[in-house]
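Appendix B. One record, verbatim.
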Amino acid sequence: MNAFPELGPAPLAFITGASSGIGQALALRCYQAGWSLAMVARRGASMAQWAAEQGLDASRYAIYEADVADTESIIAAAQSCMQQQGLPDLVVANAGVSWGVDTARREDLDVMQQVLQVNVLGVAATFHPFIEPMRKRGSGRMVGVASVAGLRGLPGHAAYCSSKAAAIAYCESLRGELRGTGVSVLTLLPGYVDTQLTKSNQYAMPFLLSPEAFAEKAWHLIQSSRSYAIVPWQMAWVGRLMKIIPNALLDLALENRTRKNRHLETLD
């Protein structure tokens, strides 16, 4: 079943984190499918350079500089989008950060606060401006990009895992709130994707996907009526196992696992 059964010739996608990685790859996939783009990130110059390199038609995209960690900033970008391009048919809350933390260190509490601000509140702030307009229109698709890491806590990943678990629960709550309005919510849980956020990981990353490969799989899920999906399918089986494995076995399996680096550079 298609999630967009009655769209016109040039539907609009609003995508955060569009300056690199998953967001950029999703933007290109949408464009290739004939969609117009509202690309959002902190680095406007990077998005402009990429769009020029790709030869994108300037009439089919707009760039909005915004930081999802700043609620008023992302709301302003959304409002500008609706004024300049109209109400999107698709909103993808993708921007995120990933740092390892050590709760024994006081400074890492501040890092954790920032991760939660971006990865949880940033998703809600991205969706917020569009909810009532989409509800009144009676259609729309909201996609929250979470992570398989949100299924269980991993040593050294307390900030990231907890933020993605919260994002999963938030999207599920929003889906229930919008039931029957014509506005649907899809929660995407990527496994490992080869982006700047994972390049410094010093541990095995099974079933690693390129951003383009992930975007292709995600695009088909966005077009479907699915409300929840883990990508790729192999990682879905890992996710199911993670949910049911007893704590003692999980702790044993992760006992000597290399932890995530602390305080990586912020990327969107």
